[in-house]
Write a structure and sequence with these properties.
about 475 residues, mainly alpha, TIM Barrel, uronate isomerase, domain 2, chain A, 2 domains, four-stranded parallel β-sheet, three-stranded parallel β-sheet
């Protein structure tokens, strides 16, 4: 049983995440001081464009910080906390949901979520004591009151965080009305979209057949024919580009690609439309569509991203009750060498095409991804992602890819988050880890200090802008 005590002080140590050895730490600090104030380039994420279109206050601490963040409620769920108690999928008192979160905040010790949230609590809201059961109401009241101040509206926070550009992610079925409203509002914050076609390229996506009909209605193309289906994608990509898109994103179960003949593709599409297809056919269709999307990217210049290797919605009961994105996605083993071969045979040597690869399978870093990106002109490596978007994950990424792919075949950092206030916290962690890694190279005389300064800036800012054509 916990004994009554005064609340602990919330402290962010200025040297957090830097190497422990004093000499190396001093180099890391010098490098970090150069990049800490650089603008944030966030080229891929899942924040809601409606926030910036409407610019309305966030409701309360639970609505803003807890309910959108699957990193948080997956941990709580693992410890027996029902999602409904947090207001997810059911009406619940947001204060009570926050109290439950606060009482379980110790579960996040040692996790990146703890780093990100403590940064938000201290730097954004000025809180000086730790979140725990005894301080739950203090936190809820302080955060909720602040959110109704003009300085905490979405656009004001965007500017306060020094965000230069922020990409959201929308389906081809999204009308992009919120992005249009942002443009017409006169606000100068740069919020752009990215093309995520999963609902209309994955035959196993719920509602796929209805989605095809909706895509037909949006574009005026007949998506029940192969030619009309491809034309509809081209039409939507053109609209997305007009709303600022510079990239596409593909969240497939695997990285498999195919380059089927026209006859084979037509027959496959026919089986998909008829609903008379196997799981093998579904995977084959997704694979073919990655190659089709690559061909379109070569034509329209959109950078292509593949985020494979997640077994989505692994918890069937949770999916049935609450739907997608509820913390039940699990990493899987992922092949890239054979999987990407058909696509790379067609487009791997194209210098005007960029394909950014991500992985949840860290065993592929040194064996497959770094050698591929260290050879093919079109390939770049995305940063440590999702379960590996963490201090140790970032270190492992740099240690296992740099010697083969170098720094300049990577794309810097992207935060890939739904939790808006965590964006600066995540970028701060990435900058600290990269500066620490570079400091070690300098201390070991593997890199000169002036070169480390150049690389630190590139990793924090330049590479993302270049890779995503921003």
């Amino acid at each position: 049983m916990r004994r009554d005590r005064l609340a602990h002080k919330l402290e962010l140590h200025p040297d957090r995440l830097f190497p422990a050895e004093p000499g190396v730490r001093a180099i890391a600090r010098e490098l970090y001081d150069q990049v800490t104030a650089l603008p944030i380039v966030s080229p891929h994420g899942h924040t809601d464009a409606a926030w910036f279109a409407r610019n309305e206050p966030f409701g309360n601490a639970t609505e803003l910080l807890l309910q959108p963040d699957h990193y948080l409620f997956r941990m709580l769920y693992s410890q027996g906390v029902p999602l409904a108690a947090l207001g997810i999928g059911a009406a619940a008192d947001p204060r009570e949901g926050w109290r439950i979160f606060a009482e379980h905040y110790h579960l996040f010790r040692g996790t990146p979520s703890r780093l990100w949230l403590d940064w938000v609590f201290a730097e954004v809201f000025g809180l000086e004591v730790r979140l725990e059961g005894e301080t739950a109401d203090l936190y809820f009241d302080t955060i909720t009151a602040a959110l109704h101040h003009p300085g905490f509206q979405p656009r004001a926070l965007f500017e306060r965080f020094n965000i230069e550009v922020l990409a959201t992610t929308e389906s081809p079925l999204d009308t992009l009305d919120h992005h249009r409203a942002i443009r017409e509002s006169g606000w100068h914050g740069r919020v752009i979209t990215a093309y995520r076609p999963d609902p209309v390229v994955d035959p196993e996506f719920e509602g796929f057949q209805a989605n095809l009909d909706e895509l037909s209605g949006l574009t005026g193309e007949d998506c029940r024919t192969w030619g009309g289906y491809l034309a509809a994608h081209r039409a939507r990509r053109t609209v997305f580009k007009a709303m600022g898109a510079t990239s596409t994103d593909h969240g497939h179960p695997s990285a498999r690609t195919e380059d089927l003949s026209a006859r084979e593709t037509e027959a496959l599409f026919g089986r998909i439309l008829a609903g008379d297809f196997s799981s093998w056919d579904a995977e084959l269709f997704r694979a073919q569509m990655l190659t089709e999307m690559a061909a379109m990217s070569l034509d329209d210049g959109l950078v292509m991203q593949i985020h494979p290797g997640s077994f989505r919605n692994h918890n069937a009961r949770l999916f049935a009750a609450h739907g997608r994105d509820k913390g039940a996605d699990i990493p899987t083993r992922t092949d890239y060498i054979q999987a990407l071969k058909p696509l790379l045979d067609r487009f791997g040597n194209e210098r005007d095409f960029t394909l950014i690869l991500f992985t949840l399978d860290e065993s592929a870093y040194a064996r497959e991804l770094a050698p591929l990106a260290g050879h093919y002109p079109c390939l770049r490596l995305g940063p440590a992602w999702w379960f590996h978007d963490s201090p140790e994950g970032m270190r492992r990424f740099r240690r296992t890819t740099t010697e083969t792919a170098g720094f300049y075949n990577t794309v810097g950092f992207n935060d890939d988050t739904r939790a808006f206030l965590s964006i600066p916290a995540r970028h701060d962690v990435a900058r600290r880890i990269d500066c620490g890694f570079l400091a070690e190279l300098v201390a070991e005389h593997r890199l000169e200090l002036d070169e480390a300064h150049e690389v630190a800036r590139a990793l924090a800012y330049d590479l993302a802008k270049q890779a995503y054509r921003l």
